[in-house]
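Q: Start with the shorter request: fold the first protein.
A: Done. Sequence, then structure:
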Amino acid sequence: MPRAAAGGGGSGFAFLPPGQNGGDPGGPGDPGGPGDPGTPARKDAKVTGRVTHALDGAGIAQVKVTAGGVSTTTADDGSYTLEGITNGASVLLGYEKSGFAPQSRATAALAAAEASTVINIPMLPVAFSDTFNPGAARDLAVPGSTAMVRLPANALRRADGSTPTGQVTGRLTPIAPATNVNLMPGNYLAATSGEPAAMESFGALDASFVDADGAPLQLAQGVSATVRIAPSSRSAALPPTVPLFFYNTATGLWVEEGSASLQGAAPNQYYEGTVTHFTTWNADQIYNTVRVNGCVQNAAGQRVAGAVVASEGKSYSGVGSAVTDAEGNFSVPAKRSSAAFVVASKNAELSNAVNVDLGEQDQSIEGCLTLTSAAVSIKLTWGETPRDLDAHTLGANLGEHIYYVSQGSLATAPFVNLDVDDTSSFGPEYTTFAKLARNRTYRFFVHRYSGDFGSGQTGSPARVELNNRGAQAVYAPPAGETSSTRYWHVFDLRTDDSCNATIVPIQKFLTEEPPPVNTDANAQYCN
């Protein structure tokens, strides 16, 4: 089996720190590879994707995307193409725009000649800004959150050690990995004295400061500040004490420094610790891993090399990934004694997802993950409440309704399957399309199964991520939800004669489930 590393989730990418070989072809030391002495490094790798606003799913324009010495900016819809990347067993990408917390990912899918992959990124807007006199002590508290930074007087300095010019502006952004693991920069990998270690998060906080000239500021030598991190975890219980890690943007790894203790009373708890510099701080712990072993094939049953396989925790906030070897085999890490799911991708092609309940030993998946020709998948996630949301798809034939009672099939009609179902907060629920029918309308909606309304799907917040042949769209609940509107009609998917899919956003809350569109059971499918 190929070597693998734990790391961040998302579409079409694997996660390894620079210098770590994920088992994909063309890595350092391979004949003619980028690490071969005397051989010029190839620069023909390509990444495409879309950057979206983490809160509402809208595309973000003018995000700077960088990898090594090349860069580009996103288009009006958030899409981007970054070409001329130096091929390597691990490539670190950065995403930056004023007003947003920075993001980054590492991918192990760009080692081979002319390699390409898809990386879709959510970015969080800065949650709170405060301008103040740096000569006085200051508490910066994020409204509606327990996240906070407590600064002593005269604590900040410019890079050259001088005092700030004029007023200082602090920017804070809490990160809640339980609702979306992809919000976290990096790949859930901690730097150690040996191989990077897999870690799970219990919440994070991005903090940065600038003076009136826009110069970045850090804490003065010998000065510390107090940080409070709002907890966010898919785990059943929060540990009383966790290590603190900061994100190293140069390596793509998290570095342990200090610890934080759980304080306050639910629902107003927080992890509190002291720090000596500002960056993204994460309340994490390293966990013991087991391996999920399996294989990836295409729709014709042929094994697929170079596919990215990702695991995502259902009972913990963390992810792992690996790249399939020449025979299409993989070995992906996941947390020991946990619940997770595993899914594969290669460029625009996506596989079905498989639930795994893990114990103390490695586990093998029965049968191969299969990349589908339709290349359409839908992922539903939400918060701790409501406890149970359900994904529903109305299929190409009259009477086809894919949901937890009738989960469908990928091998026969409806060629749609609810791969992953969840009934205990957060999700995810994962729906895969193996084939599409000609000139039909598929309907996707979310049902609030739980009787508890609370803040509803809107305040949860719920999130629907649609991947359509490599193009990503993200949907947040629209306005108008009430306790009686338990159905969120998200979108329709319409096909043409060639089964090309057009997405029609609906974005309405309803008191009853939306009616079917297709009026017969004679759907004709594309292979």
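Q: Next, the second protein, separately.
A: Sequence, then structure:
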Amino acid sequence: MYRALLVCNAVFPLEPMRLPRLNGPVRDGLAMWSALTDPETGLFTPENVEVLFDADKDEISRTTERFFGGCSPDDVLLFYYSGHGKKGRANVHLCARNTALHELRSTSFSGEDLTDMLDSSPARSRIVILDCCHSGAFKGDTSNVTPGMLDGNGKGRFVITASGATEPARDAEKHGSPSPFTRALVEALREASPRSPHANSVAVRDVYSHTLDIIPEGMPKPQSSLKGVGDEIIAKRPAHHADEAGAAHNPGQPDSQVQQTSQLSRILSQRFPGIIPASPKADGPSLGDRRPWRMTLVSSLLVGLFSWLAWRAWINDPFTYGDLTPYEDNEPFFQICGLAALLLAVVSTGESFTSDSSWLRRTLKGMRFTLGLAFGLLWLVSAFVMHLSYWEQTMLQSTMGFLFFASIARRLHDTMFLSGAVVSLLGTFTSPQDLGFDKFDGLPVVQWIICAAMLWLWFRRATDWVLGSVSALTLLPAVMSYAIHGDLPGLTLYGAGLALMSAALGDGTRPAQGNPSLASRTLLTLLGAFADAVQRPLRIVDRRNT
């Protein structure tokens, strides 16, 4: 089994001057995750790639120890770090969120600790990739390996570093772009040619050689310590890869990537590399929806709320709210909606306490999918049988449609965001009585364009902060419509709010672990800035005293 742990630290609030914020680690982690899990070239499955963003020393140590210790002898483990590196007396120190340079040994993850975990791991092969300054100082001495342990595969320790022991590594030039080393490494994972023209796999040495060939001029040259028996396979190649490689070198034949990517997409991806990936699968899902229980819980509570409000409206006006039938005959409908919402809330809450591989998690996911289909059936009943039309019913219908669409699209990435975008788009076509736009002027057209941009960015797998930003932008035409005409297109506003919450609460930045979400990262950044503002005067006084 192929398993990977990606540690990406960009913020170091205790040392803002000597360990400044880095531009590349967040995008490095997303790009590496995407390359390793690419269905065409990757050997890793999404659930076996864990990503840590801006973790402290204890979290890195605990997670890494569990990663290297909790494996089988047949596993291939890949450890990747992107962040600041500091050279110690005997090894490199990988800086954590709480690293303080005057206490470097106790507040950073040292190369000695990493080496001890590598030595004690029962895994067949261990691959270490370090994208940090002085990464070449990592001591990658391998344990004794004999030819009898090979069994047809590579075995040992394979280390690739972004720079030498005394060299700094280059950060990304701007926020949202990968570092030069990781950019080259990701390209090598996807494009490196195997030694044999007809081979369908690529080894670590092939990836290192390709990275070395394409690293930009003037950048530190990557180093390697590939010690062991044989060479470990790290990526695969489809059967047609050799033909495509030959075509790429033929100036008379257009490049396949150029054929698959529109001119507008290429121009925008070159102009805004941190926002729009070069291809739809270039950087992987931004949210992932691998643990969508947060948004499911919120949506189930909203279904319960609107069911109660719609029932109250039905009680107060039983003959005009619907098909002129007594409310007693239709009251069970609202009760069923409320009970289904309660059950979904219990299921989603229970899902948050179970592990990814447990039978209980699989059971709860199946129940969540079944309840989503049930909400689709309830939506059909409410729309074509009961014919309810008040705003409470509109909100109830849209929430049930949101959950239904998220259920049937569960194998796609960012399904919750996609569902919110669809609700927002449908809101532009509804009548004013159903919380649509009151007048057809330029504002609905602007809303269509923004909703189309939401769907396009979803297809391009933009990052969560980009999806959140465009969701917030979707709120603007609705607010302007209220300011100009006095009407509020509530359904479009509601769908945009669901998409915004989905972006803020999504889980794709740590696909195997499920957090931190955009909201969590934003909160941690604000807390770090606040702590730095409080501690900065104290550090100035301390330096003056010393």
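Q: Describe the second briefly.
A: Residues 10 and 375 are 42 Å apart (CA to CA). The chain has a mean pLDDT of 77.
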